[in-house]
């Protein structure tokens, strides 16, 4: 099968969407499919045998790491030359609109997927008054597709409630070889804790952006005697966070990738994740695969991953800081329970390989293609 992927974000950017797309492209190519990726230009022309068609763009004012790549006629010419069986638009917003337009124009079956909960993000940038308008725009875009995929049951329900049609679940996936408990090292623990390896080590991995609500980790850090905090990642909110956490034992580590990232997860005592805007929370599954106990907000797609008291702890984000503090204190105080949580987290992650998630996606593609051929 020949698949054209349109995405608003791709390598060299690092985030959960790019992680999913990297593994999806790799497994699609490995299983004999041919993929072309249309994405904002990042200097990459090929990935795992798939052509990457870079479209020039400009940085978003509120989020300079993201580029806005505008549709142009050359995209249509490249698509006609590739002759795809399926067009898959990831988070249709700007560049993705070209995928929708040319897919419709060339009568190519369309699949769309929803990964970023933009309507919720607006509230963290003082643009909450635009939420209703954004849902209408999303509905208009997504309802052009023959199938809309979400990565959690919560998002399937929410998109359906907002009038988006033909919605189904694209199962989660994680690299259980890259993220593994055996990657824990004294060196990484010392690095993350800035030499205080014997102290409780709290970890956050992800974008340093307003919608992640990383400020809410500070009361947890201050409530745990001698605790250290490592923030792995970068983003537009870093300077504000450095000011917020000034005077606390917090280490801004920057980006880690590959085995270093796997080692960071495996070497920490608890992964703290306060975000309420996650469509899935792939990074939680990575932490669990590495055997790092998770303390996370019970919101969005997170309960699809974490079963509280079994393979991690969830807290009600509406109750302020107390829930997160109590959950973290319980985790760190009960050594035997913590080891049980670690084992259960790893077992849960082992259920979700990328090969299975991609096989499910291919089955969706085939079903959509067959249905469209029957109607033509």
Using brief descriptors, characterize the structure shown.
single chain; 376 residues; alpha/beta; Rossmann fold; 2 domains; eight-stranded mixed sheet; six-stranded parallel sheet; 14 helices; 40% helix; 20% strand
CATH class of the largest domain: Alpha Beta
CATH homologous superfamily descriptor of the largest domain: Glycogen Phosphorylase B
Q: Mean pLDDT, rounded to whole units?
A: 91
Poorly predicted residue ranges: none
CATH topology of the largest domain: the name is Rossmann fold
SSE string, helices as H and strands as E? EHEEEEEHEHEHHEHEHEHEHEHEHEEHHH
The major sheet is characterized as: 8 strands, mixed
Question: How far from one another are the termini?
Answer: 19 Å
Class based on secondary structure composition and strand pairing: alpha/beta
Tally of separate helices: 14
Radius of gyration: 21 Å
SS elements, strand count? 16
CATH architecture call of the largest domain: 3-Layer(aba) Sandwich
Please state how the strands of the largest beta sheet are arranged side by side. 3-4-2-1-7-8-9-10
* Secondary structure: helix percent: 25-40%
Characterize the overall form: globular
Number of domains: 2
Beta-strand portion reads: 15-25%
């Amino acid at each position: 099968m020949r698949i054209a992927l349109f995405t608003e974000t791709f390598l060299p950017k690092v985030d959960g969407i790019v992680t999913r797309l990297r593994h999806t492209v790799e497994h699609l190519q490995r299983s004999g499919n041919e993929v072309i990726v249309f994405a904002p230009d990042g200097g990459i022309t090929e990935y795992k045998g798939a052509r990457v068609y870079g479209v020039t763009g400009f940085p978003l004012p509120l989020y300079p790491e993201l580029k806005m790549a505008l549709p142009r006629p050359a995209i249509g010419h490249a698509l006609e030359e590739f002759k795809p069986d399926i067009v898959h638009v990831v988070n249709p917003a700007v560049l993705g609109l070209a995928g929708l337009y040319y897919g419709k124009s060339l009568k190519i079956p369309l699949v769309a997927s929803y990964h970023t909960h933009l309507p919720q993000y607006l509230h963290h940038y003082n643009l909450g008054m635009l939420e209703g308008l954004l849902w209408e725009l999303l509905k208009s875009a997504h309802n052009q597709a023959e199938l809309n995929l979400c990565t959690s049951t919560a998002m399937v329900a929410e998109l359906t409630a907002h009038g988006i049609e033909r919605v189904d679940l694209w199962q989660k996936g994680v690299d259980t070889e890259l993220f593994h408990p055996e990657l824990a090292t004294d060196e990484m623990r010392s690095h993350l804790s800035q030499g205080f390896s014997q102290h409780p080590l709290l970890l956050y991995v992800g974008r340093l952006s307003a919608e992640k609500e990383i400020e809410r980790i500070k009361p947890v850090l201050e409530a745990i005697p001698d605790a250290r905090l490592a923030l792995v990642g970068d983003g537009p909110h870093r300077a504000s966070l450095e000011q917020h956490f000034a005077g606390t034992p917090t280490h801004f580590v920057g980006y880690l990738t590959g085995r270093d990232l796997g080692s960071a997860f495996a070497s920490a005592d608890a992964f703290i994740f306060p975000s309420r805007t996650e469509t899935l929370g792939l990074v939680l599954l990575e932490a669990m695969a590495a055997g790092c106990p998770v303390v996370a907000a019970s919101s969005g797609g997170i309960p699809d991953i974490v079963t509280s008291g079994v393979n991690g702890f969830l807290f009600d984000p509406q109750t302020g800081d107390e829930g997160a503090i109590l959950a973290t204190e319980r985790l760190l105080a009960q050594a035997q329970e913590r080891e049980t949580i670690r084992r259960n987290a790893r077992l849960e992650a082992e259920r979700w390989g990328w090969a299975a998630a991609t096989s499910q996606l291919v089955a969706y593609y085939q079903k959509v293609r067959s249905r469209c051929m029957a109607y033509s």
